[in-house]
Amino acid sequence: MTDTPGRDPDVLTTAELATKLGLSPQTVRRMANAGQIPALKTGKDFRYSWEAVREVLRQPHHQPGGPADDTQDDRPAHAARKGAGYRAQNRARTGAHNPITDVD
């Protein structure tokens, strides 16, 4: 990511956030439109606060109609991974990043 003078480094474009999360820009836009991640609509696209997105993605994901607490269930591990943004949530929770694409 190149630094633009006067630009807040916490505010990301869709392409920049997609790169950080290891997702496609289309998936990031879908997550923003669905309200799964916080976003500010700017014309035809969005802007995202990296800290706000990370905070939301660190929260446990609950399936609709499922228990709202953090108890273990009997589903296999791969079943719990369903849903948009699982990889992004996992990276946000663990702090994992891709050293090739993540430049601080």
UniProtKB/TrEMBL annotation:
Helix-turn-helix domain boundaries: 11-59
Matches recorded under InterPro entries: DNA-bd_dom_put_sf, HTH_17, SinI_DNA-bd
Annotated stretches, region: Disordered: 57-104
GO molecular function terms attached to this record: DNA binding
Coiled coil: none
Protein name, as recorded: Helix-turn-helix domain-containing protein
Lineage, top ranks: Bacteria, Bacillati, Actinomycetota, Actinomycetes, Streptosporangiales
